[in-house]
Design goal:
Layout: H1 2-32, E1 50-51, E2 55-61, E3 64-68, E4 74-78, E5 83-86, H2 89-107, E6 116-117, E7 122-129, E8 135-143, E9 145-147, E10 155-164, E11 172-182, E12 185-192, H3 195-205
Antiparallel strand pairs: 1-12, 2-3, 2-6, 2-9, 3-4, 4-5, 7-8, 7-10, 10-11, 11-12
């Protein structure tokens, strides 16, 4: 009886240790994931949709290409790390101010010294239906701003943008945004430098 009790205790200890190792492995895998917002996209319900009549703005802030949507959803693309980060409200305010300052300085023919620099121009932008890579709308050489197509019906879409990286190390940056259209407005729900990752993220949200 005593021997059986000892055996049972050893089995319980072995199970606990095995579970702990498995949990550590899962934790290590999650910690090793690149910091891409499409790994765990969460769009708060209070996030307002952007209207199609307003412009999407692009540029370079602190050395990174940025994309700012009309509803204040802003994203920074780090080309060297192949990563996209969604900016918080204070970072978005800085980007918004920087992009406006850049535009004003360039309009006056002055060179701007500060966080925002000329660059990040749109080489091309295209919208596709979710799950279909054939563009239903596209634009080329749009400068640092463009308007999304206003004839999109409710549903899931993908926006692919190629930006002038403004760097000697990279000619351009390509980024993909998964977005949802509802009742005449749209909001981004996934972003990445890889098309398939955005596609999977939007699919998971659905």
């Amino acid at each position: 009886m005593k021997k059986a009790s000892v055996t049972f205790v050893l089995l319980v200890i072995s199970f606990i240790l095995s579970f702990g190792q498995t949990e550590n492995k899962v934790s290590n895998v999650n910690n090793a994931m690149p910091s891409r917002i499409s790994m765990n996209v969460t769009v708060p319900k209070q996030t307002q949709g952007a209207t199609f009549g307003e412009k999407v703005q692009t540029g370079i802030v602190d050395g990174n290409c940025v994309v700012l949507f009309p509803n204040s959803q802003a994203f920074s693309i780090k080309s060297e790390a192949n990563r996209v980060n969604q900016l918080n409200s204070s970072e978005t305010s800085k980007v918004n101010a920087g992009l406006h300052a850049t535009g004003g300085a360039l309009a006056q023919g002055a060179s701007l010294v500060g966080g925002a620099l000329p660059g990040g121009a749109v080489i091309s932008a295209a919208v596709c239906n979710y799950g279909n890579e054939k563009p239903i709308w596209e634009i080329h050489h749009a400068g640092n701003e463009f308007k999304m197509p206003s004839n999109l019906t409710d549903g899931d879409y993908e926006l692919a943008i190629s930006l002038d990286a403004g760097s000697k190390d990279a000619a351009k940056v390509r980024v993909f945004f998964g977005f949802v259209v509802e009742k005449g407005t749209y909001k981004v729900v996934a972003a990445n430098t890889r098309h398939d990752t955005v596609k999977n993220s939007v699919g998971n949200i659905r």
